[in-house]
Specification:
The protein has 697 residues and is an alpha+beta fold. The chain has 3 domains: 258 residues; 160 residues, GAF domain (Beta-Lactamase, 2-Layer Sandwich), CATH 3.30.450.40; 159 residues, Heat Shock Protein 90, CATH 3.30.565.10. The strands form 2 sheets. The protein has a 6-stranded antiparallel beta sheet, sandwiched between helices. A 6-stranded mixed beta sheet has the order 10-11-9-8-7-12, covered by helices on one side. Strand 5 and strand 6 form a beta hairpin. The longest helix is centred in the last third of the chain and has 67 residues.
Length: 697
């Protein structure tokens, strides 16, 4: 029976040592993990001690084996207590000790010295050497070690409960009480010997025999009185102390092995925390990406809107104010300023502002004297921050109606490599601008420059268009109306002379020629008026405008006309190509009116495709007399049409025979699909249905 008890007891402690060793191999950040080697050593030493007791209980005749087992037990029994004492002390040190703990060494050394002296004097007793070693290892090592380990696990129980680990904390509590119970069963209950608190019952019985046998050595027991030893436990409980120690080992092993789950629980919590942090980071990154994409979309929409307004020839001042307002909203700025150099490039003047309460174009520009703005113009961009601890100049960042700026981002405006001004965003709080904000501000600066350039180019184009149109009108008046008026002046003089000479027949002939000249001049004037009034002067499509012009041409000239529109959708022409097509169309009809002597004109427009891509074909046929080689004036008009077509990548071919009329074939290239989408969004052209309309006088 005792062999089984010793075997199970050793098996329990061996399992405890193995479990703590395997847990130590896995590693952990918990302080308890650093103490597991001592717990492992304690468990293995206890297992060896109990298994030695098991073999001693089963061996009776082998003296050598008994001696080896006794020596093994004598060595490992105090070692196990020493390992337990080290383990318990390290557990207690994991937590802050009270101030009075500095007296613990003195409180321990004095009693320990007394106990060691007392033990040394009693080692000369007739009892075997193993007994005092067993007793004092339990008193000096097991007892304080078990108490310290119990206190340490109770402290861990309190800590785990504060961290809401209820399951693990209960196991820590069980381990604490198990070690305190072991302190009594293993540390206080010892074999019968003349050392208190053991041997009260045994001492009295031996002492009574001493008086009978008069054994002087037994008298050494006199004066010692005890109450707790193996015999007392057997008499009180009816069970040997080895049984109770087995229960204690089972309890300690059970609660400790289960309490080691704190490492797994901690790993699970750390893994869950890492997973949550990863999920939170992913969610934050996703939210950041969504926010960044939304911000980018807002900026992109704003830039597209700005470009659309620029292309639609909005007033440049209105566009600049719109740019400032959009930049202030998107940058969450409190103030946006735009300054441009004056005509002499000597002063930087604040032209436009946009603040939280209003946006305006300053009637009287303010001179910008901020050194930060001047520095930004030299550098290209500049971040100004008063929160960095640096002394910065904020003067001139805002106008007099706004508080001083604490944070500002300034970007230079540059045109053709030359600085023309600056744009900046300011905040009245300490919320700094980021590098991304500066990138977006630079985009806005580019839009400002584009708007200014577009306004300048539009003004120049308008001036050139007016000049060119004036030159054309002057040329037409010189070639047509001026010559006819000169001719009429001569005819009037001729009529005056014929009237004085009384030549009535000649006078009538001259008057008929004058009527033809006046009719021709009237046709030229009406043609010029029609050209200025109809073609592309409204929102009609190309085909509709050409049809209207041809209809008016038929009414004015009396020539029958037919218009055939074979273009199903928009012809996808660029604006300059469309202008040149209209000019070629007008020039052809002008030649028909002046020189062809035709009765009917057919105009057809269609869309075709070859290896070079799509193109629009304009075909004009008249049934007149054809081109006369001696008509140099008409040859000049033909060369002009060819030059117009060549300027946009097209060509014009003329086919004519005397008496068989003339064919004008004009082919002009179309834009590609992706380019046309841009052109279509800009000019918003409309398609017209396919139909044929005849016009007559």
């Amino acid at each position: 029976m005792m062999m089984l008890v010793f075997f199970l007891n050793g098996l329990a402690f061996g399992g405890l040592g193995l479990a703590s060793y395997l847990q130590y191999r896995q590693g952990s950040d918990l302080p308890l993990s650093n103490h597991l080697p001592w717990l492992t050593a304690f468990g293995i030493a206890c297992a060896i001690t109990n298994w030695a007791d098991m073999f001693l209980a089963s061996t009776s005749n082998e003296a050598t084996l008994i001696s080896i087992l006794s020596i093994t037990r004598t060595i490992f029994q105090p070692l196990s207590g020493l390992f337990l004492l080290k383990f318990g002390w390290d557990l207690v040190r994991d937590f802050p000790l009270p101030p009075w703990s500095i007296f613990i060494p003195g409180m321990v050394i004095v009693p320990l010295a007394f106990v060691l002296t007392f033990a040394a004097t009693n080692f000369i007793t007739p009892s075997p050497l193993e007994i005092p070693i067993d007793i004092w290892s339990r008193y000096l090592f097991y007892l304080p070690g078990s108490i310290l380990a119990g206190i340490g696990f109770l402290r861990y129980w309190q800590k785990q409960r504060e961290e809401s680990l209820s399951d693990v904390s209960k196991l820590m509590l069980g381990a604490g009480f198990a070690f305190l119970f072991e302190a009594v069963i293993v540390g206080l209950v010892v074999p019968a010997a003349p050392y208190a608190p053991s041997s009260y019952y045994t001492y009295n019985r031996v002492l009574s025999n001493a008086f009978i046998v008069q054994d002087p050595s037994i008298s050494l027991f006199a004066g010692f009185s005890g109450w707790l030893d193996y015999q007392r436990v057997l008499d009180v409980t009816g069970l040997p102390i080895q049984f109770w120690r087995m229960l204690t080992s089972f309890a300690v092993t059970f609660f400790l092995v289960r309490a080691l789950d704190v490492f797994e629980t901690t790993r699970i919590r750390q893994l869950k925390k890492i997973t949550n942090e990863r999920d939170h980071a992913k969610e934050s990154a996703y939210i950041g990406q969504v926010s960044a994409r939304k911000t980018a979309e807002k900026w992109t929409d704003t830039l597209v809107t700005i470009n659309r307004r620029i292309i639609q020839f909005d007033d440049v001042d209105t566009i600049l104010l719109f740019i400032l307002e959009q930049a202030r909203d998107l940058l969450a700025a409190d103030f946006i300023g735009l300054a441009l150099y004056d005509e002499d490039d000597s002063n930087l003047e604040l032209k436009c502002i946009s603040s939280n309460d209003h946006s305006e174009l300053l009637d009287i520009p303010e001179i910008v004297q901020s050194t930060a703005v001047q520095r930004a113009i030299l550098r290209g961009s500049y971040l100004l921050s008063t929160g960095s601890g640096q002394l910065v100049d904020t003067k001139g960042i805002t106008n007099n109606n706004n508080p001083a700026a604490r944070e500002a981002g300034i970007v230079r405006l540059e045109m053709e490599g030359k600085p023309i001004g600056a744009i900046w965003a300011a905040r009245f709080d300490n919320h700094s601008f980021t590098q991304t904000d500066m990138v977006w501000l630079e985009c806005m600066a580019d839009q400002v420059v584009i708007a200014i350039q577009h306004a300048l180019m539009t003004s120049q184009l308008q001036s050139l268009s007016i000049t060119e149109e004036r030159s054309r009108i002057a040329r037409d008046m010189h070639d047509g109306l001026a010559q006819i008026l000169g001719y009429l002046n001569l005819q009037v003089q001729t009529l005056d002379a014929l009237l004085k000479q009384g030549k009535q027949e000649s006078l009538a002939g001259e008057l008929e020629q004058m009527r033809k000249a006046v009719k021709t001049a009237n046709a030229d004037v009406r043609e010029n008026i029609l050209s200025l009034r109809t073609m592309l002067s409204n929102e009609q499509g190309l085909a509709s405008s050409m049809e209207e012009y041809l209809y008016e041409f038929s009414i004015q000239t009396g020539i029958e006309t037919s218009f055939q529109d074979e273009v199903e959708n928009e012809p996808h022409l660029s604006s300059i190509t469309e202008v040149q097509l209209v000019c070629i169309f007008q020039e052809s009809l002008a030649n028909v009116r002046k020189h062809a002597q035709a009765n009917h004109v057919i105009v057809r427009i269609r869309k075709a495709e070859d290896k070079n891509g799509e193109f629009v074909q304009l075909w004009i046929h008249d049934d007149g007399i054809g081109i006369q080689q001696n008509r140099t004036r008409k040859q000049f008009g033909i060369e002009t049409m060819k030059e117009r077509a060549a300027s946009v990548g097209g060509f014009v071919e003329i086919y004519s025979k005397p008496g068989e009329g003339t064919n004008v074939d004009c082919n002009l290239p179309c834009l590609k699909t992706e380019k046309y989408r841009i052109s279509q969004s800009i000019f918003q052209q409309k398609t017209s249905p396919i139909h044929v309309r005849d016009g007559s006088k």
